[in-house]
Amino acid sequence: DIQMTQSPSSLSASVGDRVTITCRASQGISNYLAWYQQQPGKAPKLLISAASTLHSGVPSRFRGSGSGTDFFLTISSLQPEDVATYYCQKYNSAPFTFGQGTKLEIK
Amino acid sequence: QVQLVESGGGLVKPGGSLRLSCAASGFSFGDNFMSWIRQAPGKGLEWIAYISGDDYTIHYADSVQGRFIISRDNAKNSLFLQMNSLRADDTAVYYCARRDPAGPHTDYFDFWGQGTLVTVSS
Questions:
Q1: A91, A92, A93, A97: which to substitute to probe chain B, counting the most B Cβ within 10 Å?
Q2: Distance between CA B32 and CA B64 in Å, rounded?
Q3: pLDDT digits (tens, 9 = 90+) for B61-116
Q4: What is the pLDDT of residue A106?
Q5: Contact at 8 Å (CB) between B67 and B93?
Q6: Quick check: B107 and A98 CB within 8 A?
Q7: Which residues of B touch A101 (CB under 8 A)?
Q8: What does the alpha-carbon distance between residue B120 and residue A102 come to, in Å, rounded to a whole number?
Q9: Cα dihedral B75, A55, A65, A15 in deg (nearest 10)
Q10: How far is B30 from chain A (nearest CA, A)?
Q11: Average pLDDT of every residue of chain A
């Protein structure tokens, strides 16, 4: 099975900073990659699909990029409400594996 | 609006069984693939099962294959997860989630329920 590895596992940044999270697949998955945000105590929310397509209602400061094995989630200007754990998920075929998560905090 | 509401969680002894339900509303349930995804306390997300709208396609993660059964009742807009031979490492919040209906290769999840907690302990 394809493994998904995120880095870093945790991240602390200041409001207004540009933040980038990396997700690496152990084999190529084309652009079958989604990103989710899970705020504390809540269910995950879809942010991005097809590696770079922003889901309806998601702020434009979120951007996804990458293809093949290396993918990136960038927040262009960090806001307090972005405190959350972020997960990538591959969906080229079952099993639909998630990365282990990146916990984002505000300094 | 799309709503998914899970129920049926609770405390169960190792080796026991439990049946989770997910009530769906706000969309054409029978036309949509649905999944169960779980999250152990303080841990990440694990996809565990998937069913097509017509029951024809079903997949399981290796971790639950042979112990869990996913099913649905389209007349009642409901998704189920029958969990048997439960183990301590099945302890988790269980979410039901809708696959994005946008196309044939959209196996990501655009709506999630709030989750129901299953605790397996003696």
A1: A91
A2: 22
A3: 999 999 999 999 999 999 999 999 999 999 999 999 999 988 778 899 999 999 99
A4: 95
A5: no
A6: no
A7: 44-45
A8: 27
A9: -130
A10: 21
A11: 97
